[in-house]
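pasting for ref
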Amino acid sequence: MLAAERRDHLLGLLAREGKIVAKDVAAELGISEDSVRRDLRDLAAEGLCQRVYGGALPASPAVVDYDARQTVAPDGKRKVASAAAALVRPGGSVILDGGTTALAVARALPKDLACTVITHSPTIAATLIDHPRAELFLLGGRVFKHSAVTCGAAAVEAAQNVSADLCLLGVTGVHPDAGLTTGDAEEAAMKRALSARAADTYVLASSEKIGTASPYRVLPWDKITGLITDPDADGTVIERLGALGVEVIVAR
């Protein structure tokens, strides 16, 4: 089989199965695992898969820069944001993660809602300035411009001094095998620090993130309360998440 044909075969496997197991492909095609791994390295370099131990998973499209992400699945993000905003109760407190879906949540919060919002996103804080009854706490630190949030040691330390009823957390990848993932190690650490300070954590994941993976694990499934997605999410993946005991809210 020519290299181009192997490439098409691997991409087809990712689309159909949601993963590639290198040893299985090698046996099926009668080639070495090293050949399969080289093909996967090439696909990963093009952003077409996320390599993992023993093979590969679909790469998340949500690892592009902040401005580009504003145009990815806007309808799905609005649906997820509306369902997430409904979880914020009058008089309650919420830790709101950064990212474009979390920004949509901030925009979906009623302007007359009395609540406390803790965030490490300057853009989210700015969005809520004109909400007269929302108390705002902005966690400082080094600004990670890719996601327009603060992170690093100072931000993690600031997070350890707050607490809230609810944490609404963004990720770039949601996969039954890889778990909840994101594209930067420090950002993953910050997300863990935020989640640890809330009674309940819901993950915000519009459909383009479902069934995909990024390099850095954020949280195991047993550390979240539930996951909010939209109706276009892959049903097979949603069923697998349910089998893992994950509460999935499909926003309409």
